Amino acid sequence: MTEDTPDSLIPYDEIVQEALRAVVGRVLGEIERGGSELPGNHHFYITFKTGASGVSIPAHLRERFPDEMTIVLQNKFWDLEVREDGFTVGLSFNQIPAKLEIPFAAITAFVDPAVDFGLQFQASVSELAPEEHEDAENDAEVLVQGDPDDGGDGSNVVTVDFGRKK
Predict the structure, then answer these.
(1) What residue numbers bound the domain in which 96 lies?
(2) Residue 27 above 80 pLDDT?
(3) CATH number, domain containing residue 97
């Protein structure tokens, strides 16, 4: 892109973020339809903004994780229910069962380390104040790589880069 490139009137970055979140919904929907059994060695790390609109978690978890939380769906989870706008799941924290309701818009990362697949999102949480930061070179970068020591070539890395005017 050059300095003469006009700002887009089409919100491409929002459209791509929404489409990638639909990937998370589809994957979780497949697990739900399969009886909430994860095939093979698949397991998921899902990071989300705890203060996002529509997130429902127990008060003790919100106190412990006031900004962001990562959950793991692997062996012990139950009542996975996937909707168009998010999902609910039962998990145990320190042997205390809890039901979590998480909108897809609150998710900031989704990783399946069994196959070195991951997505990273910009949180679409309008009521949270943006964190202070320097101007970035791009609007969004979706990047999760496997352990560099595992000999992987990073071929399952998905990168989305929207250049900004400089």
Answers:
(1) 12-125+135-150
(2) yes
(3) 2.30.30.220
Residue 2 belongs to a domain? no
Question: CA nearest 112: which of 3, 30, 13, 50?
Answer: 30
Count of the separate structural domains present in the chain: 1
- Six-digit token pair at 21? 């979140």
CA gyration radius for the chain? Answer: 17
Residue 27: CB partners within 8 Å, gap ≥ 6?
44, 110, 112
The C-alpha angle with vertex 30 and arms to 26 and 32, in degrees rounded to 5, equals 115
Helix H segments across the chain? Answer: 12-33, 59-64
Which tokens in the block code for residue 159?
């990168």
Q: Domain for residue 5, yes or no?
A: no
Residue 156 forms part of a structural domain? no
Structure tokens at 128: 């949270």
- Judged on CB neighbours under 10 Å (0-12, 13-18, 19+), 9 is exposed
Q: Provide the residue count of the chain.
A: 166
Domain-embedded: residue 90: yes
Positive/negative CA dihedral, 76, 81, 83, 87? negative
**CB atoms near residue 6 (< 10 Å):** 6
Report pLDDT digits (tens) over 67-80.
Answer: 999 999 998 899 99
The whole model's pTM is what? 0.70
